[in-house]
Amino acid sequence: MSPVIETDEHQALRSAVAALGAHYGRDYLAKVVAEQRHPTELWYEAAKLGYLGVNLPEEYGGGGGGIAELAIVLEELGAAGCPLLMLVVSPAICGTVIARFGTPAQKRRWLPGLADGTRTMAFGITEPDAGSNSHRITTTARRDGEEWVLTGRKVFVSGVDIADATLIVGRTEDARTGRLKPCLFIVPRDTPGFGRCPIDMELSAAEKQFELTLDEVRLPADALVGDEDAGLLQLFAGLNPERVMTAAFAIGMGRFALSRAVAYACDRTVFKQPIGAHQAIAHPLAQAHIDLELARLMTQKAAYLYDSGDDVAAGEAANMAKYAAAEACVKAVDQAVHTLGGNGLTREFGLASLVTASRVARIAPVSREMILNYVSHQTLGLPKSY
Ligand SMILES: Cc1cc2nc3c(=O)[nH]c(=O)nc-3n(C[C@H](O)[C@H](O)[C@H](O)COP(=O)(O)OP(=O)(O)OC[C@H]3O[C@@H](n4cnc5c(N)ncnc54)[C@H](O)[C@@H]3O)c2cc1C
């Protein structure tokens, strides 16, 4: 199979998820956000149809597919105006890491619930003092007999309130070198010492972001995911799917905004023709469509490489896909809002809030500049400034 052409199964999945998305749509999500709750009905219906765990192994109740399929699910829900952000963290990062590196007991404990949607897991790596420089994270795990004791802080972690646990990236001391190395720990939501405080975001979304404090959080030995010495490999196994999924999230949002703008531009007439007949309106929309299609092509390539087991090539492609999709999304949303004139800023038409939302994909999980740094150094071999 060509890495960039979707199979019949993929296309069937796309249409089926699009139908589910159309059933809920933007109005449903807007209502959920206004009521300050979570899109539980959509979450469980998507789970029942097998979409949430489509990438997880069949023996644990998943669909046996890969990140390509999960990205299709997120993109199509986004294109319908009702994306599920927790797909990026729960099945994509946490599910993948546990499926690939978890112990048999961790797989049995977590994967069936992540696949059928009854359990959710958040993911916490960002720290206030480290930011984009994840080498500087200081959340530290020390051994105390059979237990681990975690201390540190995290920021901007999504969905901790609804997640049964958070996969926390910490560090342990290397017995040989004394240097700190990354390690992943499953921290159940109500563990003593695990505090969370919501961040007041200017984002219209169902999922909240949290600042976390880990104050001598005691965890059993089996809270450590996989192998203490393979933390870095395991971490990247989760970060690449996160980038692919963020790209899918951005493409979905861009498509949603574009479709609203096209419908408006065909309908709204202020001179003789509908505004969409003016090339000043039509061409930027056509460009936005082309950019989104190109970004999708790169996202498909990244997903294909990841699902084929080529982690190194997937890393580069996933970064590029995330970059391209975020830029395409920001531009599509901007042009869509502009196309609607004053209505672009009304609540009724629901596009203005996407201006903020689209910026998320440019910042998280890795910023536009850090991807440009990565490509400058890793791909092009240019020297580093930092
Ligand atoms: C809505 C939302 C949800 C999120 N969810 C999660 C989550 O679930 N889990 C989680 O762990 N994190 C999450 N994050 C955090 C996100 O991953 C970080 O915000 C992101 O990694 C950037 O880190 P920072 O905010 O500290 O920015 P900083 O690192 O402080 O960067 C600020 C600016 O400086 C630029 N910059 C920094 N260094 C360089 C450099 N060397 N060269 C050029 N430019 C540079 C950056 O590109 C950026 O524009 C979320 C963030 C948001 C906004």
Automatic annotation (TrEMBL):
The keyword Oxidoreductase applies. Residues 7-117 form the Acyl-CoA dehydrogenase/oxidase N-terminal domain. Keywords: FAD, Flavoprotein, Oxidoreductase. Residues 122-207 form the Acyl-CoA oxidase/dehydrogenase middle domain. Residues 231-373 form the Acyl-CoA dehydrogenase/oxidase C-terminal domain. InterPro entries: Acyl-CoA_dehydrogenase (IPR050741), Acyl-CoA_Oxase/DH_mid-dom (IPR006091), Acyl-CoA_Oxase/DH_mid-dom_sf (IPR046373), AcylCo_DH-like_C (IPR036250), AcylCo_DH/oxidase_C (IPR009075), AcylCoA_DH/ox_N (IPR013786), AcylCoA_DH/ox_N_sf (IPR037069), AcylCoA_DH/oxidase_NM_dom_sf (IPR009100). The keyword Oxidoreductase applies. Its cofactor is FAD. CDD domains: ACAD. PANTHER family: DEHYDROGENASE, PUTATIVE (AFU_ORTHOLOGUE AFUA_7G06510)-RELATED (PTHR48083:SF1), MEDIUM-CHAIN SPECIFIC ACYL-COA DEHYDROGENASE, MITOCHONDRIAL-RELATED (PTHR48083). Belongs to the acyl-CoA dehydrogenase family. This is Acyl-CoA/acyl-ACP dehydrogenase. It comes from Streptomyces macrolidinus. The lineage of its organism: Bacteria, Bacillati, Actinomycetota, Actinomycetes, Kitasatosporales.
